[in-house]
Design a protein that fits this description.
By secondary structure, this protein is of the alpha+beta class. Among the domains are: 74 residues; 124 residues, Macroglobulin (MG2) domain (Immunoglobulin-like, Sandwich), CATH 2.60.40.1930. The protein has four helices and nine strands; from the N terminus they run H-H-H-E-E-E-E-E-E-E-E-E-H. The strands form two sheets. Strands 3-9-8-5-6 form a five-stranded mixed β-sheet, with no helix packed on it. Strands 1, 2, 4 and 7 form a four-stranded antiparallel β-sheet that branches. Strand 8 and strand 9 form a beta hairpin. Helix 1 packs antiparallel against helix 2.
Length: 365
């Protein structure tokens, strides 16, 4: 007969319970029997035997309690559990005798269902392509590796045993663990755990396997409290691309409201716009008008002509033309190059005098 660790612990606790119950019955019976004896020595021996039986029964009870509480985790620590895959039994329907009705009633009203539930085919779980692209392991996984059904709890003890496992959790859930046992794993093989909320992938982890070939493992998720939406969740375990096991749990109650993060108020940055520097336009350089120099006195030699009837030429002083005020020009805009205007220079008065003197001399001669 092959017994696993759990069955062995239960059997040992049951035997201790039976021994304790027998010891209590035998002790009480021995004490009662001792009271009917006449001889002191025999009565004392029978009383001592009865009390010893009661004390031994108490010891058996204490051992049974400690065995039930601590024996199984200690045994798993030294002897990792080996999972034996169980085949799903197929339901064999036994044909029943069909009774032939003698009277066939013709229905008068045929009820048409308003909603026809068409059964949908449940697809086999598979790895999404975005998760498959994250694989980093080159170790070929063992197709014979097995995983047990998962247990869900919000805490694990030091031996990775779930504390108060359950399938229904109330908000706020907090940190949730999905614990399982495994066997025939190859270190370094790629394994993945996918957490689904309905059909939506809400969390995943995929890494090369860093555990042993058999033992206890878990996958966990600790999101923000407001991410635990009410509804049904499913956790799927894959080794390579092969699906191994799945587990479902339900979250009830509304999640807590997310606390908005404090957004820093924008500080007003004063941007100083520099006014364009004024470009001083060049001052108009006016060509100074030439002021006629004072006309020098010309001493005309007086010659005594032989002919007294010769006319005498008198030089008329030259009056310079009036100086016209410069015509104002339009003020050029900044950055425009001012083109100086050509101001005509009036002829010099001295040149005119010399020219007149030359003509007089020529005429006179």
């Amino acid at each position: 007969m092959k017994l696993d660790i759990h069955t062995g612990v239960v059997t040992f606790v049951a035997l201790l319970s039976v021994l304790a119950a027998y010891g209590i019955w035998a002790g009480i019976h021995s004490i009662r029997k001792a009271r009917t004896l006449k001889f002191f020595r025999m009565r004392r021996d029978r009383m001592v035997t009865g009390w010893r039986m009661l004390l031994l029964s108490v010891v058996f009870i204490i051992i049974a309690i400690f065995t039930n509480r601590f024996a199984e985790p200690i045994a798993y620590h030294y002897f990792p559990p080996t999972i034996t895959p169980t085949q799903t039994p197929t339901n064999t329907f036994t044909p029943t005798i069909s009774l032939t009705p003698t009277i066939t009633l013709t229905p008068t009203i045929t009820l048409t269902p308003s909603v026809s539930d068409t059964p949908t085919i449940t697809p086999t779980p598979h790895i999404p392509l975005v998760i498959e692209d994250l694989f980093t392991s080159t170790t070929t996984p063992n197709p014979a590796s097995v995983f047990s059904p998962m247990q869900f709890a919000t805490a694990l003890d030091k031996n990775f045993i779930p504390i108060n496992p359950n399938t229904v959790f109330q908000n706020p859930v907090g940190h949730l663990y999905a614990q399982f046992t495994y066997d025939k794993m190859i270190p370094g093989a790629q394994w993945s755990a996918l957490w689904y909320y309905g059909n939506e992938l809400v969390y995943y982890e995929t890494d090369p396997w860093d555990g042993g070939t058999g033992g206890v493992g878990y996958t966990d998720w600790n999101p923000e409290p407001f991410l635990w939406l009410a509804g049904e969740y499913e956790v799927q375990i894959f080794v390579g691309l092969s699906w191994k096991t799945s587990g479902r749990f339900t979250v009830e109650g509304q999640p807590p409201t997310a606390i908005p993060s404090a957004t820093p108020s924008p500080t007003r940055t004063s941007t100083s716009t520099l006014a364009p520097s004024l470009t001083l336009r060049p001052s108009d350089t006016r060509v100074p008008s030439q002021t006629p120099s004072p006309r020098p006195k010309i001493n005309t030699p007086t010659q005594t002509p032989e002919n007294t009837h010769a006319p005498t030429f008198t030089s008329t002083p030259y009056t310079p033309p009036p100086t016209h005020a410069p015509t104002p020009t339009r003020t050029p805009t900044p950055f425009a190059t001012h083109q100086p205007t050509n101001t005509p220079i009036p002829p010099s008065g001295l040149n005119l005098i010399n020219h007149s003197v030359l003509r007089i001399q020529l005429n006179y001669s």
